[in-house]
Automatic annotation (TrEMBL):
Alphabetized HAMAP family for the sequence: NADHX_dehydratase (MF_01965), NADHX_epimerase (MF_01966)
Name recorded for this polypeptide: Bifunctional NAD(P)H-hydrate repair enzyme
Cofactor binding mode and count: Binds 1 potassium ion per subunit.
Cofactor: Mg(2+); K(+)
Lineage, top ranks: Bacteria, Bacillati, Actinomycetota, Actinomycetes, Streptosporangiales
Function recorded in the entry: Bifunctional enzyme that catalyzes the epimerization of the S- and R-forms of NAD(P)HX and the dehydration of the S-form of NAD(P)HX at the expense of ADP, which is converted to AMP. This allows the repair of both epimers of NAD(P)HX, a damaged form of NAD(P)H that is a result of enzymatic or heat-dependent hydration.
UniProt-annotated binding residues for AMP: 404-408, 433
């Protein structure tokens, strides 16, 4: 499990550790780790450290101090190091170390900074770290923008302009090839848009481990998901493995039904009971003979009873939002089984919040627009502050929230937010969300709690998509995928966790 923290949590841990160490020890550890990554990159790109050109962008805080001390180490190995000071101040010890090692220090001037950034083999972003607040001011903002023209950029601790605690980016921000972070991951390195500014993240151990509190954000890894996934045991049967009831599709949207059933079946459910109007039932029966189907014409006094016993429900994909759909949603949500509410189900819940007031576990899977309707908060505000709003929705609605997006978040009250690290931009294609809800339904029916089902489901969905994009391989050339390809790649995604 990868764990991440807010700036305040990191600061508190650093203070506790620093109190036990001679002054400057932590910065020396950070700078040594940073210099070693920089040297590796220079060797890879320029063939050697000696003679290579390094430009340091230096802010007035300790983030600049790290960069200056690392620059001094590189200068001692023969690199030609120049520090551009963005502010009137710079860490005095770091500045002296760089000058002592033969490096140069220049005051910011735009044309000079541009040349130094373009000509460098490596640019080191030491503008701001966890002390950054709000959008970058000038000339920091211009320097961050100029980094787009650099050959290679290493960000110190976090890319400047990215909020370390949330991943928020308000204005220009450095886009790094590599981020060297100290002591522990910061939330902003895992959550977008920050995460996509960080490039590859290298964690340098500075001894913070024993002083870190419970993490604020975590990311599951393949082995974590492998441990959490229920596997069939010898004396099992389809009922014990889990039966999921899928209420999805309508005569207008038949595909959502087929895809949702695909996700559940390929994720390894014991059995699918599928219920809908006549058309989607016909399509599901044709494509998935494995599913047991029920036609609902909307006149049933007890639709849930007609469908039969299940251990969990998927409610919503393509089911529509009319009166019939509303009544069906009410009936499913009145049961005592866990329910994942997706798509039209989320729209119905936004219109009638009483639907989500239930004691059994509920997972909702909105994108930012759907969450905007649920919370009554503008969509762009949610997109800018995803962590905050996923948490708020979980607390206010009393459900597990899977907020879809470039990085998917899973929030539940009093638990660290889980951020999903698998996936690919190719996933942005119609129907993939229906597959995801089927996967989560399958995991819920197998007995996983909502928090685990949602986060493992997102992981498997993203991993299956990656395999499909690479034609079944872990990496390599990429090609387009359709939603059904994601479902079809699930068994391989699980096999190779
Ligand atoms: N603590 C430790 O033990 C260790 C810490 N370490 C390192 O220290 C870093 C934290 O250092 P830090 O606390 O000095 O803050 P830092 O990130 O340099 O930024 C503060 C400066 O930035 C400025 N500034 C802020 N916002 C701005 C904006 N929007 N636009 C422009 N400027 C802005 C702000 O200016 P001011 O508001 O004061 O005018 C202030 O001067 C941490 O990330 C890690 O790299 C490591 O060495 C390991 C040990
Ligand atoms: K930085």
């Amino acid at each position: 499990m990868r764990t991440a923290y807010t700036s305040d949590q990191i600061r508190a841990a650093e203070a506790a550790l620093m109190a036990r160490l001679p002054e400057g020890t932590l910065m020396a550890r950070a700078a040594a780790g940073l210099a070693s990554v920089c040297a590796g990159m220079l060797t890879a790109s320029a063939g050697k450290v000696y003679g290579s050109r390094v430009t340091l962008l230096i802010g007035s805080g300790d983030n600049g101090g790290d960069a200056l001390y690392a620059g001094a180490r590189l200068a001692r190995r023969g690199a030609r190091v120049v520090a551009v000071l963005a502010g009137s101040r710079a860490h005095p010890g770091g500045r002296a170390a760089l000058l002592g090692a033969g490096g140069r220090v220049v005051a910011y001037e735009e044309a000079l900074a541009r040349d130094l950034i373009i000509e460098a083999d490596l640019v080191v972003d030491g503008l701001v770290g966890i002390g950054g607040a709000g959008a970058l001011r000038e000339p920091y903002a211009t320097l961050a923008r100029l980094c787009a023209d650099a050959h290679r950029v290493v960000a110190v601790d976090v890319p400047s302009g990215v909020d370390a605690s949330s991943g928020r980016v308000d204005g220009p921000a450095v886009r790094a090839h590599v981020t060297v972070t100290f002591g522990a991951y910061k939330n902003g390195l895992l959550i977008d848009p920050g995460a996509s500014h960080a490039g590859r993240v290298e964690l340098v151990d500075i001894g913070l481990g024993p002083y870190l509190p419970d993490p604020d954000v975590v990311a599951l890894t393949g082995p974590d998901v492998a441990d959490l996934l229920p596997r069939p045991i010898e004396e099992t049967d389809k009922y014990r493995r889990g039966v999921v009831g899928i209420v999805a599709g309508s005569d207008r949207f038949t595909g959502a039904a087929v895809l949702c059933v695909a996700g559940a079946l390929r994720a390894g459910v014991g059995m699918v009971r599928f219920a809908s109007t006549a058309e989607p039932v016909r399509y599901v029966r044709t494509r998935w003979p494995e599913a047991v189907t029920t036609v609902l014409d909307g006149t049933e006094p007890d639709p849930v009873g007609k469908i039969g016993r299940v251990q969990a429900w998927v409610l919503g994909p393509g089911m529509g939002t009319d009166e019939r759909a509303h009544a069906l949603a009410r009936a499913v949500l009145a049961t005592d089984e866990p329910v994942i509410v997706d798509a039209d189900g989320v729209t119905l819940a936004a219109r009638d919040p009483s639907l989500l007031r239930r004691s059994a576990p509920t997972v909702i899977t909105p994108h930012a627009g759907e969450l905007s309707r649920l919370l009554g908060v503008p969509r762009d505000r949610i997109e800018a502050r995803k962590l905050e709003h996923a948490r708020r929705a979980a607390a206010e609605l009393g459900v597990t929230v899977l907020l879809k997006g470039m990085t998917t978040l899973v929030a539940e009250e009093d638990r660290p937010v889980r951020v999903n690290t698998t996936g690919t931009p190719w996933l942005a294609t119609g129907g993939t969300g229906d597959v995801l809800s089927g996967i989560i339904g399958a995991l819920l029916s197998a007995g996983l709690p909502g928090y685990e089902a949602a986060s493992c489901g997102a992981y498997l969905h993203g991993r299956a998509a990656l395999l499909a994009v690479h034609g079944g391989a872990e990496a390599g050339a990429e090609g387009p995928i359709a939603a059904l390809d994601v479902a079809e790649a699930l068994p391989e995604a699980i096999r190779t966790l």
